[in-house]
Amino acid sequence: MSKEPKNNSMLGSIVGTNRRRTISFVDYCREYFILDNGQRYDPTARACMADVVEDYHSHPHIVIEKGAQTGFSTLAIAHTMYMVDVLEKNIIYYLPTDIMARRFGPTRFDPYINRSTYLQERLQGTDQAGLKQIGTHFLYVLGLMSKTGAISIPADEIVFDEVALIDPENMELAQDRISAPGSLGWQKYFSVALFPEDGTDELFQQSDMRKWLIKCSGCNYQAPVEDDWPENVDAREAGNVRLCCPKCGKHLNVNNGEWVAEHPDRKSRRGYRVPQIIIPGANMNLIWDRYDKAKDKPSKLATFRRSALAIPDSGNLQPVGPDVLRRIEDISDFYFTDYSHEMTAVGIDMGDKAHVAVVAPYRDEGIRLLNFWEIDVEDLLELVLHIERHFNIGALVIDAMPYKTKSKEVVRSLTKCLGYIQYFKGTEIKEGTEGEGEREVNVVTVDRDESLDETTDLFASNPPLALLPKPRDEKEEQIIKQVKTHLLKLTKEETEVNGEKRIGYKKKVPNHFGMAINSARIALRLATGKSVYLDPDNVHVGGRSKIRRILEGYG
């Protein structure tokens, strides 16, 4: 494939005269990139990669949901060098942490440069671990552990490697780097997907979602082979494991396929799922052996599905997954409400915005969510006043941090119910107080991970013991969609504390409604037997529509 990519004429008009502008990206790889095994790099050598490579060099927004060891770091490295060298563009290559970024240059970029006389001659000026200069343009390799990496220099293209491990808020900030006038504005994302509908998979779900459909030469059955695993595996002959048609049993040729978009109308975002098993020459014996050893172990099976099949699987690290939410939706038969006769409780997650959830009891220890709000912190007091008046609150729990003064102010403003500021510490739920005299407020302390486990267990139980309301209008449809997204992001990770490994819920992720629901559940427990019931006649003063108009101002 030596011809110019389909959009190269457009690129040529952008970059103008360039002494190397006649060489295509594919030919650049073939001539100047040598792999670890001494072979020259041909990015289109695999049948499934031809369209991917062409789009990678011509489409402004690419998402690759990939299996492990499928060659995309090599593709990305070659392409960034081509963009800086031939097209004279500035590129930023993002990795999850500064440590990974510092290691990436010497271990991944430099070997390709050292094996190519041409690339050594082209590289000039600064040659640091995270900075490469060719001519007057630069390639930056940065970590995104903090916002510092996102607030940097402008670029024509940004590349996100290991997307699943990058802080989503920092990744969003980094997108500002390509917003300058005259920038190409290209974005590339690739990673093994960890959680369904989160991180890499969330981006893939927003794309046109292309999958490699392999056709059986016997019965013409055509499907993504990862979706049929393991029914499409012939492992009868030891040492000769092969993919086969799940319909007729004929062995499959992975090159006999085509990319088919699940959502062809989404032209602005191109997405590919690339599992290991569609790569010609993949060691099927080893892949099958890994599966056979993992199939009865949920956490190991999840790892296998992610790395070999490119299918996100949380194992036990995403308690509230898409299947859980669908099950809840199937049995929830009530709508958002603007008032309550029965006792309720309120939870508030504090941050740049306040996220508010109102819950009522359900069965023995379950919860039924009644309403949600996302508002500016300065408007929170007025909203709480209206909620207290109309929802018969028994207790309210609000984060002590990061705005302790405002949180205490909310608690002191309550006139009919108990109010608590909340700290995450200790191993069990405890009540206390903080401050003296008129400044005194109630305090509740809980263990963050244990309390979230109690909340997510209610959602994940079968049948569910936590129910979500149905929307009555478009506004509520948007808020419940956001609530579900935040619940999906109540995910866990393995960390090391004082030399000991432990699994806990991720921090600094957009799961604010999930945290608000957790606080509301705690408030409901504290409120049991302590609520002040409203007079139903007062609830109906002015009619339901008037109450809803009041509350809608805070949605």
Round the Cα radius of gyration to an integer and report it. Answer: 27 Å
Which percent range fits the helix content?
Answer: 25-40%
Query: What would you call the shape?
Result: globular
CATH class of the largest domain: Alpha Beta
Report the count of strand segments. Answer: 23
**CATH architectural arrangement of the largest domain:** 2-Layer Sandwich
Euclidean distance between termini CA atoms: 54 Å
| CATH fold call of the largest domain | Nucleotidyltransferase, domain 5
Overall pLDDT confidence? 84
Specify the number of helices.
19
Can you walk me through this structure?
With 555 residues, the chain is α/β, with parallel strands linked by helices. It has three domains: 8-209 and 262-274, Rossmann fold (3-Layer(aba) Sandwich), CATH 3.40.50; 214-256 and 284-312, no CATH class; 325-552, Nucleotidyltransferase, domain 5. It has 19 helices and 23 strands. Strands 1, 2, 3, 4, 5, 6, 7, 8, 9, 12 and 13 form an eleven-stranded mixed sheet that branches. It has an eight-stranded mixed sheet with strand order 19-20-18-17-14-15-16-21. Helix 10 (284-294) runs antiparallel to helix 11. The longest helix is centred in the N-terminal third of the chain and has 17 residues, at 98-114. It is globular. The two termini are 54 Å apart. The relative contact order is 0.09. The model is unreliable at 1-19 and 529-555 (pLDDT under 50).
